[in-house]
């Protein structure tokens, strides 16, 4: 066994816990998970069956945790994991799974495939079987602080442009602010108007906020790659930035995996509770609405629908808030047939969007979203994740679909009543 | 002599293997443990885990026609099997005399026939799906087939035994049941028990995030 294979097997072995063992002990190979996975439904290729994507870990479990597996290993009748297994599963796991966890919602035995796949990635990564693009993005995140190479100078330049456009000051490194806003590099580079929208909403609602020049990146490539060490390191940077500015709450932006990571995974990655609260921007905006601090004027008359980002909705629990916000400004809002916790993924989550070799497959499986959009016949599509937005843009363009695409924060900011609230401050 | 062996030592051996085996498998899972989740939950993980362990008895509406065969055949087989196990007259009598000391009203003969037909049809449909569908053919292994065949043989000998034409058929049924009991803890049949922690783990994870899984 080569040393890198040994490292991969050892990393996977370290991931084995009671949950994984009970999952593998329960799976009856019924194949229902395949019917929930867009990579199977849109390609018809059985290799994309979610539980099949966990095969390296299942094999390890079988050989080390079952009677027959142990017996076969002792008698030399079973084949141990090989480098070829890792090579074969690299494509299935990194290119053919967004870890959207739709499969985890339908398994009659309760198997959470996404949970296992995240662990399989740890093994593949340790063995050196990861997509080069994702590895490069992770390296940029480690060295530059952004998977896309967005530097603090780029952020400052973007802030200046947004300040000019909104006529508002965007607070950088303001100690003692209530909220620290993080951004995804994709937002800074692709949708900088999100920052301006925040400035306008927060000004109107009287929210004390800031951005940290020390660390502003919300995404976590370590989670996408399956490198818990890097993932923890990136979380620690957020913690250090928040502690330095003495903020009470960190606001996760319109980015799916960023929210899931900082809200749900982060304490487990660093082994302690976070010294601040975490809210997703939809949660904060909805709270401001409930408090009467977010007021809108006018509506968007377009027939529009909402794409639920998997990591914010299904794996994050933010289901109602975006709908409450849409109800403020969109009287012609219609739901897609499968939405909320059973939405279909955009096809680019879990690091797939950073993996160029998966582009063809990603655009192929977009057909499910195309079908959904064709059914509801909308003029505008709204979402709350910049990565989904990029993926949706790609898919719409590929399929020559004429649809407006917008983020909720931007939509709300566009209908804002911009008066200085009398909050006795 | 064979009858005495099957109804005596082999029965006790099968019972011990089954009980200790199942208990050991469940204990082994618990012993591995999982790291505590340090994130601040939105709601109770325990309640969510319990709710999901019940909720997953029903398929999600959104899956609709895509899993119609799985659902129909699955219900036919499992409900039929449990009805036979608990309400077939010889089983009620056996439980009363050998294990519990009390019994209940068994199902009538015609109901046994109907129920067993449903259970057989469900099992056969599931197995045919397993060997014909490209997905299940890819992911199935020997254990899946052994478990299906063993269960089929147990049900078949059970039906034959109910005819009560020969004592030998009853003994044969008893023998196949004992084989199944011995095989059970070492096989995927364990899902009959491990589905509870499996569903509960997933329900707890999603539930603490505020999602009904």
What is this entry, summarized?
The complex is a heterodimer of chains A (425) and B (213). Chain A is mainly alpha-helical.
List the helices and strands and how they pair.
The complex is a heterodimer of chains A (425) and B (213).
Chain A: H1 3-15, H2 18-26, H3 38-41, H4 50-53, H5 55-65, H6 67-74, H7 83-95, H8 113-126, H9 132-143, H10 152-166, E1 179-181, H11 185-190, H12 193-205, E2 209-210, H13 221-225, H14 228-245, E3 249-252, H15 256-270, E4 277-280, H16 281-290, E5 304-307, H17 320-329, H18 359-365, H19 367-376, E6 380-383, H20 386-398, E7 404-407, H21 408-413
Parallel strand pairs in A: 1-2, 1-3, 3-4, 5-6, 6-7
Helix pairs in contact in A: 1-8, 5-6, 7-8, 10-12, 14-15, 16-17
Chain B: H1 2-7, H2 9-32, H3 45-55, H4 68-87, H5 89-100, H6 109-132, H7 134-139, H8 142-162, H9 167-183, H10 191-208
Helix pairs in contact in B: 2-9, 3-10, 4-5, 4-6, 6-8, 8-9
Description:
The complex is a heterodimer of chains A (425) and B (213). Chain A has helices spanning 3-15, 18-26, 38-41, 50-53, 55-65, 67-74, 83-95, 113-126, 132-143, 152-166, 185-190, 193-205, 221-225, 228-245, 256-270, 281-290, 320-329, 359-365, 367-376, 386-398, 408-413; strands at 179-181, 209-210, 249-252, 277-280, 304-307, 380-383, 404-407. Helix content of chain A is 51%, strand content 6%. Chain A is built from 21 helices and 7 strands. In chain A, the strands form 2 sheets. Chain A has a 4-stranded parallel sheet with strand order 2-1-3-4. In chain A, strands 5-6-7 form a 3-stranded parallel sheet. With 425 residues, chain A is mostly helical. The N and C termini of chain A lie far apart (67 Å). Chain A is globular. With 213 residues, chain B is an all-alpha fold. Chain B has helices at residues 2-7, 9-32, 45-55, 68-87, 89-100, 109-132, 134-139, 142-162, 167-183, 191-208. In chain B, helix 2 runs parallel beside helix 9 and helix 8 runs antiparallel to helix 9. The longest helix of chain B is centred in the N-terminal third of the chain and has 24 residues, at 9-32. The mean pLDDT of chain B is 95. Chains A and B meet through helix 2 and helix 15 of A and helix 2, helix 7 and helix 10 of B.
């Amino acid at each position: 066994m080569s040393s890198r294979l040994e490292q991969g097997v050892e990393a996977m072995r370290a991931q084995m816990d009671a949950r994984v063992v009970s999952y593998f002990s329960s799976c009856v190979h019924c194949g229902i998970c395949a019917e929930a996975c867009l990579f199977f439904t849109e390609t018809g290729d059985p290799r994309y069956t979610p539980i099949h994507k966990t095969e390296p870990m299942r094999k390890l479990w079988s050989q080390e945790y079952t009677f027959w597996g142990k017996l076969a290993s002792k008698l030399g009748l079973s084949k141990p994991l090989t480098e070829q297994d890792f090579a074969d599963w690299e494509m299935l796991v990194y290119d053919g799974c967004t870890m959207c966890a739709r499969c985890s919602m339908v398994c009659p035995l309760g198997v959470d495939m996404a949970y296992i796949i995240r662990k399989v990635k740890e093994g593949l990564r340790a063995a050196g079987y990861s997509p080069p693009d994702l590895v490069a993005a992770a390296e940029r995140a480690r060295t530059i602080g952004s998977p896309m190479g967005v530097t603090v100078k780029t952020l400052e330049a973007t802030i200046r442009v947004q300040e000019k456009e909104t006529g508002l000051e965007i607070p950088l490194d303001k100690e003692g602010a209530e909220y620290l806003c993080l951004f995804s590099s994709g937002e800074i580079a692709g949708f900088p108007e999100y920052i301006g929208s925040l400035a306008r909403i927060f000004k109107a609602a009287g929210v004390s906020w800031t951005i940290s020049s020390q660390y502003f990146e919300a995404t976590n490539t370590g989670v996408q790659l399956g490198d818990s060490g890097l993932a923890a390191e990136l979380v620690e940077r957020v913690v250090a930035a928040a502690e330095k500015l003495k903020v009470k709450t960190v606001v996760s932006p319109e980015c799916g995996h960023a929210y899931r990571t900082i809200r749900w995974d982060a304490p487990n990655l660093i082994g302690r509770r976070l010294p601040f609260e975490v809210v997703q921007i939809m949660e904060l905006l909805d709270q401001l609405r409930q408090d009467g601090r977010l007021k809108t004027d006018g509506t968007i008359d377009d027939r529009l629908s909402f794409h639920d980002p998997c990591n914010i909705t299904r794996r994050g629990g933010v289901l109602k808030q975006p709908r409450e916000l849409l109800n403020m400004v969109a009287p012609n809002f219609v739901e897609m047939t499968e939405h909320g916790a059973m939405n279909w993924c955009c096809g680019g989550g879990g690091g797939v969007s950073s993996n160029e070799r998966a582009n063809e497959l990603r655009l192929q499986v977009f057909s499910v979203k195309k079908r959904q959009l064709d059914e509801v016949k909308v003029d505008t599509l709204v979402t709350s994740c910049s990565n989904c937005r990029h993926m949706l843009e790609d898919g719409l363009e590929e399929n020559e679909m004429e649809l407006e695409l917008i983020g909720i924060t931007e939509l709300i900011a566009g209908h804002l009543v911009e008066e200085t609230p009398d909050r006795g401050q | 002599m064979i009858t005495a062996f099957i109804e005596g030592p082999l029965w006790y051996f099968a019972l011990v293997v089954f009980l200790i085996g199942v208990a050991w498998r469940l204990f082994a899972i618990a012993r591995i443990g999982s790291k505590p989740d340090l994130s601040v939950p939105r709601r109770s993980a325990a309640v969510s885990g319990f709710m999901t362990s019940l909720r997953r008895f029903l398929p999600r509406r959104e899956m609709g026609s895509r899993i119609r065969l799985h659902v129909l055949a699955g219900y036919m087989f499992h409900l039929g099997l449990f009805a036979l196990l608990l309400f077939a007259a010889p089983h009620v009598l056996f439980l009363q005399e050998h294990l519990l000391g009390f019994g209940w009203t068994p199902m009538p003969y015609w109901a046994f026939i109907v129920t067993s037909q449903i259970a057989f049809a469900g099992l056969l449909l599931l197995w045919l799906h397993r060997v014909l569908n490209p997905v299940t053919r890819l992911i199935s292994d020997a254990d899946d087939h052994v478990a299906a065949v063993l269960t089929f043989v147990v049900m078949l000998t059970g039906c034959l035994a109910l005819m009560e034409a020969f004592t030998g058929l009853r003994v044969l049924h008893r023998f196949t049941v004992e084989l199944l009991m011995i095989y059970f803890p070492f096989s995927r049949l364990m899902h009959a028990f491990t589905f509870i922690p499996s569903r509960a783990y997933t329900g707890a994870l999603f539930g603490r995030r505020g999602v009904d899984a």
